[in-house]
Amino acid sequence: MALPSRLAQLQAKACEATRFAAKHGCAYQRSLVEKNKKYVVEPPTIEKCQELSKQLFYTRLASIPGRCEAFWKELDQVKQLWRNRKDLNVEHAGVAALFGIELYAWFCIGEIVGRGFTLTGYRV
Fold it and tell me: Can you say where in the cell this protein is located (predicted)?
């Protein structure tokens, strides 16, 4: 398929999506806010938003020691598995292999995205 026809097709789909969003977007937004009313803070002021932002930041900051502890526990488990690798069964080896493949796939996808969704690095 030629590039100009693909571009026209993509443009038509984008226009269709824009029309759909314009027609149904407000109703969707209203229903979403109504469903999640318990999370809305009244009155919605700038000061309240800044306070919530600080609460989120410091809550995340306070969770770092717990995350570090969990990381070191998992690392100790991996070390223990490595020490007893002769006792590994096929299931554990398969899970480890799938995890490695998943990491490699995410790396490859990240590289492709970083190059602007091109496989060779050259844009046409």
Answer: Mitochondrion membrane
